[in-house]
Structures
1.
Amino acid sequence: MAEQADSAGSPNPSTEGQSRLGEWFEKLEKPLMIYAYQTLNDREEAQDMVQEAFTRFFGDEQKIREPKAWLYRTTRNLCISHLRKYGRLQTAGEEEQMDFLDQSSDKEKDNPANRLEREETCGRVRHALSMLPEDLRELLRMKFEERMSYSEISEKSGLSVSNVGYKLHTVIKSLAFELKAEGFSS
Amino acid sequence: MSERENKGPDQGRLIDYLLNESSPEERIEIERLCKEDPQWESARDDLRSTLGLLEDACSQTIPAIVEGMELDADRKTRLEFSRAGDGEAETAEATDPPERSLLATPTFWGPLAAAACAALLVWAPGLMEEGETEQIASAVNDKEKSRKRSEENEEQKIIVAKGKHLSEQYAQSDDTVAIVLPDDAQAIEETVVIDALREEADKAGAKLLAGRTAADIETLNQSVRESESFSLADAFSDSDSAKADDLALAVRAPASGEPGTIDSSAFLPPLEPEAGAAPTQTGIGLESSEGELALLGRKAALSTFRAKESSHPTDLERPLAKKDKLLNLQPSARQTLEKRDRPREKPASWTQSVRKPASCFLFSQNGQALGRVEVAQIAGSTIEIRRIDDVRRGKRFLLTSGKFQLRFTDPDGAVVILVGELRKRQIEQAEAKKGDDLFDGIYRFEASEAWWLDRNEIRQALPIKELGR
């Protein structure tokens, strides 16, 4: 399926374009399928949504600056529209959050629209976690679920304290960047 | 400001700060930066939100990756078409053939063409001259042919798409396309059936039109000239100008000739044929079908009207019903509202409100709610409190020492607020059993200021020394 770049001839715009499209497809077909499947819980429907997202992407690729964020956002919107269309969209239950990290008021949290948006964002984060390598996921789990300090994680994982910090920083920064690029409000 | 700070917010430092991994000096520095620089503040808020989401996500089950998550071969092929830029029409046709075939069916278009032709005969008889029947018939046939050609083009496009799907399309030097038909026998069979039906419809239409004679048309013209007709515009105006418009929708004028009130029955045909009403003979045999069409139209209009009428009262009742339902479901909310509306009074004994509160909540210095607490012990201005529900998922989220507020509400609704320093109560090493945590969840709150809230929610100072008595 992947479009191979013409290695012999000089690159022309169309070949480059097609190669780029192929590259994004190669890179994101599986993650997007997993994301759509996690949202819809139906393989056939997930395929429809991802196909539609790529069809739109191929039509508008000249205007798209952040292909990954665009494709994720489009897939998510398509899935949500699909769920709404068939009345399968449900709001999440109550959320819990750590005191230090929570500055939103109870009123804001109780707003169904905010709750729904938060659930969508949380779904996206869960997807991002599911795509991480097992060792990184374990680091995050130790930090956010077990509430361990860097030094405790270091002792348990055998990594140096600075390495633990570096790995966690990298994951958190990239996730924050992706969420922002995909238009999730903070 | 140092050079490091000028570069903009350092996300790593902020993450460490938010995860309580910074030294006290670093925390103070970060707080200063966030206070002074909106960029730092915004970056901190973004990261705080991301960390909150990560915490939520980590506490939930991370979905397992299901194997074989990729598009199937058919979808990939369709995507290849769209990526290759072969034209949107082909893609659309290839992905959605059933809808197209419905519209392309001549059984759908044939009767419509005949009806259009008949309408032309009825509405524009003055333009008709002897021998024009054949011209109209041939014009309709031309339209049919033109439509047929465009349909054939569409069908070719589908076949091209299918041909590409099988990689059996080869470009010619003269820019034409050589198509090798796919092995899809059903497509060919469909084409043959469609052609046969189309031919049949053409013949029927031509037969109907050719069957009319010049005398038939003259009879039609005569009957239209004799009948007193007026356009819908006449219902609102006395002007005769609209009467001249033969192409306007004609209806019969009331016998009195006065416009009077507008009644739908004046321009909609009756649901059932009126007794004694003889059909007008025009000699072209279209009254029955025309009447049927009108009857259907009237039935549709009435059913739409009835549907709207029946939905109308429900729409009005719905919000009220919802409101009642809401209030019935939440009597506690009603009580809360009533209680809230009562004006607040100064507590009879504010120290009693602190000692025996109906509820007590902890707040940070900037007013962030940190949940309910219970008073374990009071000794002078030192209050020992225990947070309720601070243990979530088996973990206790600790508070760092600092300035906090306690808000007490007594059974009468009076509110007392204490501000002071909060710190963890450490169990003495000697008191703790082996293996026990040195912190048992009790905080010590050293109150330094006290207020009560008046009816305007304004803080009124209280003498803190009274608490020690």
Note: The first strand of chain B starts at residue 169 and ends at 171.
2.
Amino acid sequence: MKRFVINTALYLSIFLVISLYFYFATKHNLITDFTAKKFVQAFNQNNLVQKDEMCEDRRAVYENIVFHKNQHFNTVFIGSSRIMQLGKYTQIKNALNLGMSGANFYDIQYVYQSVKANNIHYDTLVFDINPWTVCASVENRQIQFNNFEIFKLFLKDVFTFNYSKKDIQYALSTKEHTFYFANFSDVENTNNFIKFTDGSIKQISLGPNKRKGRITTFCKDLYLLKKFYAIDTVLFNKTKNLIESEISNAAVCIVLSPFHPSLFKERKSDIRVKNLSVLEKMIRKEFNTKINIIGSFNPSYLNLTDSNFVDGFHLTEQSVGRLYRNKSISK
Amino acid sequence: MLFNSFEFLIFLPIVFSIYWFLANKSLNLQNGLVLIASYLFYGWWSWPFLLLLFGNTLLDYFLVFLVASENEKTAKWSLRIGVFINLGILGVYKYYNFFVEQFQMAFNSLGVHTSLPILKLALPIGISFYTFHGLSYVFDVYKKQQKPVTNFIDYAVFVSFFPLLVAGPIERANHLLPQIQKTRKFNYNQSVQGLRLILWGMFKKVVIADSLAIIVNAIYANYTNQDAYTLIIGAFAFSFQIYGDFSGYSDIALGTAKLFGFELLSNFKFPYFSRDIAEFWRRWHISLSSWFRDYLYIPLGGSKLGKLISIRNTFIIFLVSGFWHGASWNFIAWGFIHALGFLPLLLLNRNRKFVTNVVAENNWYPSIKETFQMISTFLFVTLAWIFFRAENISKAIGYIKKIISNTIQNPSQFLNLPGGHSDPLALQSVIYYVIPMVVFDWIFRRNERELFTTVKMNVLRWLLYVIIGLFVLFFFGTKSSFIYFQF
């Protein structure tokens, strides 16, 4: 028994030491300058993302941040997919878009802290605030950058000499990734989709039937608004504090991107749709006098119609431009 | 409580420590502790169903005294009552709704509309396993192969011993009870081997099976939109998922039992290295197939009463075995397919060709003939697994049809592997997860209980332990249930 206890304790000690090493190693971001350079260059070579466009993939967002460390930008965008291709169509020069699909508060906070940690400078910082920033999300896309998945990616980054488009799209099988596996072939043309390593899919174009179907489904199911029965005041205050902490450093903007008009016609009595106005009022009350607030959740603000939307909650690229041209981004 | 849960990580060392440091002086203390631990283990999932387990145990405990009666009539009737009650409980929980639905469908097709009540009962975890434990005891006592146990705690431990309670191996009274009735002494080698089995079982479950499950679930959930290539990958992935899941569970069960000084029956002996279906069934879920052999096939006459009876009996045990897995036609179809695969061997008297030896017994690698035999057996088994995994027979047939039709439509999809498919990652992942397991199994295929022992260098062996342990740690956390818990 004594021998068994000693050997087991020895094994557990070795195991503990190595586990702790991995734990602390993966507590640090293993995305290095070297790997970021390789990764982002591969993205650019394959036209998967431009620095001023949204990138849906969380890992790629972080690679992008590391890649652009110590640089200065006119505008940096942080938020969800609803700020897609914002830099390009707002004609803002020298922008860095760090939008990521379905970004919740913790995604935003992480990206913001990473921007700071990597010494990226900017004149204007744009926050895209959404209902799912201040409520429990129906999606769980948020990935920890400091976990074993990233460690595996790091190993792959180090040992991959040439990235192909496929390598980037299928760089890693994460649990989030394969969540979309089942849906992947459920598209009109799979060539219109790019699947990223965190499982999100960037849609290049939608067929007309698919688009109509998506809008109908969105109005029926409310998608990311599904749990928006209440505004989480804790998350709202955290968002508020994050934004306020930045006011003294740079010009700060908040973007309230509109939802499809049919939502306000067909589901106007739904508490979750009503909560959109409540949230917007709260944001305006809190920030109206301090910073620029661009747009509104309600599309009637800019007389936006069905044709201005890609789906239930994404504006077409041109409409994004219209949203921004309507109000200057700088304070 | 799941083996792959945090609770079990706490539970096991505590019970182990009390067992060897405090309860090692007395057999009653050891057994009492094992019983309490087993009930805690089961009750962690559901206390009300613990009462069912206790009731079942109590009933069989008392009934066997009548079954053991010298009066033949009393013994026979007691046996019938025991079988009726044991199978009755199983039937109510597991099969009642199935039969009601089938009766209603049959009557409806005749134009008679019936409305029998459907029971909304949860299926108690492990009911098929502990019912079969109890039944084997009743049968053995009836056949005078086992004396009735007078100490209730001993018998209760036999039925509810926590490592095997929820998913086997299905133990036999004459194998486990003598171990329960004897004070266990700590054995270093046995305990070390137990830990090795637990570690390897965890790896198979947490790293391999759970990772493959993601791919398999995604493909099966949306099979109508997949290409043939992806569907084939899905079918292969499930073959390894269910093997990793169930044999992983069995390894943990065997290993845990070893820690407490018990030797359970082997449940798996590297079944995918089988050279024909008969050998496969001597290596897959051995405790169940031998149970059916001893308590169903042989009492029905086995192979002693001529070829026709032998064929009939073979089909019966495969169909019953399929039905044991679940009250659904797809499980019955799965059993039927295996019976069909077994039939040519039976007709040609080749069903006992590979009884004692293991493939490539004295070589590092198999011959071409053996390779062909293993691959063809594996392909057959994989085909049958489609029926096992699909939700129903029509979906299983649809899955196979889609493979065939899509292959005919687009045969070139197999020429540009692995690119050009809806998800080339699937193949990559399957290869990543499966290769380590297959290589490991191949190296240790001669003795499923002596894992790692052929690695003579201590440093190398310890390195393996640490690497495997780290993988388990990194993949730990999803806390997914074992597939066989549902049976």
Note: Chain B has a mean pLDDT of 87.
